[in-house]
Backbone:
């Protein structure tokens, strides 16, 4: 049983139902604005819905932005957080710190413009403007309201040298390049010359993962995209040694497109059904990193067993020490990454394998 102080740090006092679970697993949270001694309140400026959730909502409502907006508002109102019950994911937000409890360990000050680096699925959230400024057609949602951070939450002060939408897009997926770098470096340290394939290489987390893999010492970087337009953009960005077009949901076709199995496969897509192809594309003794919330981890585990595949499978949990700073550094210093980010359409509704969602 958690000590009372630790329980407060992780936010269990905000759980309304069911009792005894952490905020992420809760159906409903208390989003009241009064903060505890170790909490922080943020005035919300913008939400960033994760791509898997946004795609699901868009498809459910046949692209009707007003219906998507109403559905998102209903979820937040009913649950006290943005936690899509269909995908189990949420996103993150940008706002201004309005109050800091005297015992908060987060190092934030009133007036700081911050991005939360924890999922909206565990962040108490209240919306006061009805999302009236959002057309429901893009992942980034102008909003007014407040959110609460716990002592064990993570947030980053937004940099002054990058536009807010660009910084927010990078911070939304900042776990991807950090973990990719760590895994690739382990192969290099062991004396290997690792090869890496990134499914969804033209998306946010995919492009960052490719840049991180190359900087970490990967000798073959393969970017997998779903259609010619993304292939041309990724080729122009210069982030991959090979750019291949394949449907990540087609295991045989994907493996054939990649060719020689790779040491590390990074899954950065926003559609289900890509688990078996990722396993099949990875050599025995290799590693598969799943960053998409569209992943079925049962399908991944059972599929690997059925293929007699000796692969290590990692769940990208979106946090590593220094992950935010590293992602922003890549956006600042890699023109290919920045170009892809800046060229992304606001709707986030391109084909299978193009986008990702890790919160």
Residues:
């Amino acid at each position: 049983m958690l000590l009372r102080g630790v329980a407060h740090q992780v936010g269990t006092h905000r759980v309304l139902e069911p009792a005894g679970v952490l905020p992420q697993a809760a159906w409903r949270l208390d989003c009241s604005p009064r903060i505890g001694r170790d909490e922080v309140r943020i005035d919300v400026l913008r939400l960033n819905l994760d791509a898997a959730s946004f795609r699901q909502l868009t498809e459910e409502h046949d692209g009707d932005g007003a219906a998507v907006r109403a559905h998102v508002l209903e979820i937040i109102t009913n649950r006290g957080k943005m936690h899509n019950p269909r995908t189990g994911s949420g996103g993150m937000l940008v706002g201004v710190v309005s109050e800091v409890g005297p015992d908060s360990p987060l190092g934030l000050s009133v007036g700081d413009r911050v991005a939360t680096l924890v999922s909206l699925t565990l962040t108490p959230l209240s919306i006061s403007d009805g999302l009236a400024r959002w057309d429901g057609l893009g992942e980034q949602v102008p909003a007014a309201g407040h959110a609460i951070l716990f002592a064990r939450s993570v947030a980053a002060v937004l940099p002054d040298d990058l536009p807010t939408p660009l910084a927010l897009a990078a911070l939304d997926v900042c776990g991807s390049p950090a973990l990719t770098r760590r895994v690739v470096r382990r192969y290099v340290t062991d004396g290997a010359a690792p090869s890496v394939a990134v499914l969804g290489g033209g998306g946010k987390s995919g492009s960052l993962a490719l840049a991180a893999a190359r900087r970490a010492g990967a000798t073959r970087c393969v970017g997998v995209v779903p259609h010619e337009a993304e292939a041309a953009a990724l080729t122009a960005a210069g982030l991959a040694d090979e750019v291949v077009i394949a449907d990540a949901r087609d295991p045989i076709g994907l493996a054939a497109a990649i060719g020689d199995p790779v040491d590390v496969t990074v899954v950065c897509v926003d559609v289900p059904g890509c688990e078996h192809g990722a396993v099949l594309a990875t050599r025995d003794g290799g590693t598969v990193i799943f960053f998409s919330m569209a992943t079925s981890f049962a399908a991944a585990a059972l599929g690997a067993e059925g293929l007699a595949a000796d692969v290590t499978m990692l769940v990208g949990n979106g946090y590593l020490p220094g992950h935010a700073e590293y992602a922003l550094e890549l956006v600042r210093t890699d023109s290919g990454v920045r170009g892809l980010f800046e060229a992304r359409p606001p709707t986030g509704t391109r084909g299978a394998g193009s986008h990702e969602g890790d919160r």
Remarks:
- The mean pLDDT is 91.
- Residues 33 and 355 are 34 Å apart (CA to CA).
